[in-house]
Hints:
By secondary structure, the protein is an alpha+beta fold. Helices cover 13% and strands 31% of the residues. The protein has helices at 32-41, 64-73; strands spanning 4-9, 25-31, 43-44, 59-61, 98-104, 122-124, 128-129, 135-144, 147-155. The strands form three sheets. It has a five-stranded antiparallel beta sheet with strand order 1-9-8-5-2. Strands 3-7 form a two-stranded antiparallel ribbon.
Amino acid sequence: MKLRIINEIRSERWITATYSGKPDYVYRGMSIEEWEEALKLGRIQSDSRYCYPGQKGGTCYGTFKDAEHYGIENEVEEPNDITWNWKSEYQRPRPYSGIIIEIPRSMVKGHQEDPRVHDGEYMHFEPLPLSVISRVWELIPYVDNNKIVYVRNEIKVP
């Protein structure tokens, strides 16, 4: 499938959003591996690897800008460091693509609804079906003038 380029995103350190999200929606950034697992299982559920105590089983969401950050954070320690070695797609290059999903705010709880959720974050504690996803973007890195640039491509919702 040919992906349609929606926006180019350039930054000195992290991605700067040119799309700020929609009211009444929340966003989750994830690795390609987490996305592939969600597609395989037909549901969205974090493995809780990075959850705070008391949040086990929770899946976090935030603003679009937060999601862009988390979509690459675990894969890239220094996004502008181009000293990474490019490998075959099967060995995962660094940096590599991340995913952002958009879901309705009504599908998650905020801090006022559940004290386990930190202020400014949103979570669900049960798996959600992929059918709640309204939009999906892939963040694809490439090098331009010795800086890592991310192209944000909107992809088909499952």
